[in-house]
Design a protein that fits this description.
It contains 2 helices and 35 strands. It is mostly beta strands and about 550 residues long. The strands form 11 sheets. Strands 2, 5, 6, 9, 10 and 11 form a 6-stranded mixed sheet that branches. Strands 18-15-13-12-33 form a 5-stranded antiparallel sheet, with no helix packed on it. Strands 14-20-19-16-17 form a 5-stranded mixed sheet, with no helix packed on it. The chain is globular and about 90 Å long. The relative contact order is 0.11.
Length: about 550
């Protein structure tokens, strides 16, 4: 029988919810009672954080186990120095104080899911020669300080969609929805308002849903799971009628914060407003929702006393043939919706390899819910940014080197000469054939069957691996990333790009893709350029 009794760890609380974050110090005591004098090799405490995923893919002829592991930190402190000859501790109650500092860095919050977990543990251990060690293990509630950057999502978000009915049904339906903000904390309530114009011959019901999507990744393989956290079903909307409905959507108090800074596990949330239509695909409006830990939530979210009032657009904004004009302004800057970039030859999607800042870019199986595969085309700057990291697609110095991500560099008209940075390798153009080309370099984004690496090469005419498209077979830079647009009426798009830079871009685009343009029937290329201090826009044609 072991002479070591009542081994216990007690923490000094540093926050209301007993959680720890990057840079915090774990302070407490280790206590135990010895029934007699005991010779020990060491007494130490240890803290570590790690992520694991594992699932089994059922295949023919055998099943295949997928697993991945990430270690974030491991710190250790000896309370009794390690001595292989042994240190004798007398018979009595022993109490040791400890202080373990958690390293700084981008580390994800604690998480437990169906196919993986992110766990932070604290262990106290007494080692003895030729004896099993005595130890106690406790989990730490870790809340990451590395929260998504979401200032624009604190404003009301609006989106709309319309659908023409087919088959035995006639007419069309339109949904225009607004949420009071796109970021919140667990336990808060959001206001959702929707206007429906049912110009069809069918009855339908309006539904509101909060959905959690978790994606587990292992190399190029992913496994996703969905869970509905909140759902409300409205009244029946009869044919040829209009209706406004509102919903107070309560986020569960135990909801896991949005998780984007783990390479092998991601957690995203979506608010869906949709119509349940029998024997047809349901038209839906989808809002991404960011859930932040309460202690790191923005002030306006944390101090909200209740749901804000959201005014729906007037019924007059609906027409029989167009979307509601009150919520469909002309966008003069970056598109707000995300898109998937798919290689036409291989059928795989462009993704961030590591899911962290400065990560490499590779190909993976297309996953509709993976934030690592979501991209945005910025029309004014001709850049491609990753929705997950906010960084821009950057070309390497030479061809056949891997493409990667770097912080976006935008050159503006108000920049001082000494502070200007040339965008250079982050400026792209796309042709109608699907070639994504670095402006001024003559190098094209390319992939091959032999590797998941995405690189640059010349001579794209004979290489189908250099052709790219969206999942719905659209051009990458046609300005339409989804059927419905997420519009933030309070988003300021910043300063106009300098006109001389845009002209240099245009010249490079024309030189590189002249053949493609002529082959596709473009005798002239039309550009709209914003010029500070002049008229709002002017047209320039190149022949």
């Amino acid at each position: 029988m072991s002479p070591i009794k009542n081994l216990n760890v007690t923490f000094e609380t540093i926050s209301d919810n007993s959680s720890y974050s990057e840079g915090d110090t774990i302070v407490g005591t280790v206590s135990f009672r010895l029934k007699k004098d005991v010779k020990v090799k060491s007494v130490y405490v240890k803290a570590k954080g790690e992520a694991n995923v594992e699932w089994t893919e059922v295949g023919v002829p055998v099943e295949r186990l997928q697993s991945a592991h990430r270690r974030y930190f491991k710190v250790k402190e000896y309370l009794v120095a390690e001595n292989h000859e042994g240190t004798v501790l007398p018979k009595r109650v022993h109490i040791f104080k400890f202080r373990l500092k958690i390293p700084e860095g981008r580390m994800p919050s604690s998480f437990k899911g169906k196919h993986g977990n992110i766990v932070y543990t604290f262990e106290a251990k007494i080692s003895r020669s030729w004896r099993l060690p005595s130890k106690v293990l406790k989990e730490i509630n870790f809340v990451s300080k590395s929260c998504p950057h979401t200032p624009q999502m604190m404003c009301p978000q609006s989106s709309s969609v319309h659908k023409k009915m087919s088959g035995l049904s006639k007419g069309q339906v339109q949904i225009c929805a607004t949420i009071n903000r796109g970021v919140c904390s667990p336990g808060e309530t959001l206001s959702v308002v929707a206007k429906i114009c049912n110009s069809s011959s069918k009855n339908m019901r309006l539904k509101f849903k909060l959905q959690q999507v978790t994606v587990y990744s292992c190399q190029d393989n992913t496994n996703s799971s969905k869970e509905t956290l909140f759902k409300v079903v409205g009244d029946t909307i009869r044919p040829n009628s209009e209706q406004t409905a509102s919903c107070q959507l309560k986020v569960p108090s135990d909801a896991i914060p949005t998780l984007r800074n783990c390479e092998i596990i991601s957690v995203e949330y979506y608010i869906k407003v949709y119509l349940d239509v029998s024997f047809a695909l349901d038209p839906e409006v989808v809002f991404p929702l960011v859930i932040l830990p309460s202690k790191f939530a923005p002030t306006q979210s944390r101090e909200a006393l209740g749901p804000e009032t959201v005014e729906p657009p007037a019924y007059s904004e609906f027409t029989s043939s167009t979307l509601p004009t009150g919520l469909d302004p002309i966008l003069t800057g970056s598109e707000l919706s995300a898109l998937k970039i798919q290689n036409k030859l291989l059928g795989k999607c462009l993704q961030v390899t590591e899911g962290t800042e400065g990560g490499r870019v590779s190909l993976g199986e297309c996953s509709p819910h993976s934030p690592l595969q979501e991209w945005r085309w910025h029309q004014e700057s001709q850049t491609v940014s990753n929705y997950h990291t906010g960084e821009c697609l950057t070309a390497p110095q030479e061809q056949y080197e891997g493409v990667h991500l770097q912080p976006c560099v935008f050159r503006t008209a108000s920049s001082k000469d000494g502070d200007r940075k040339e965008p250079g390798r982050q400026v792209w153009t796309c042709s109608r054939k699907g070639h994504l080309t670095v402006v001024g370099k003559g190098l094209h984004l390319t992939a091959t069957k032999e590797s998941t690496l995405v690189f640059l090469s010349r001579g794209h005419k004979k290489k189908q691996g250099s052709r790219w498209r969206t999942l719905d077979s659209q051009m990458l830079c046609n300005g339409k990333t989804r059927q419905h647009k997420n519009i933030n009426p309070h988003l300021h798009l910043g300063e106009s790009l300098e006109p001389e830079i845009l002209f240099s871009y245009i010249s490079d685009v024309y030189r590189q893709d002249e053949t493609d343009l002529l082959e596709n029937g473009y005798g002239g290329v039309k550009f709209i350029v914003s010029v500070p201090g002049e008229s709002d826009s002017f047209l320039r044609y190149l022949r």
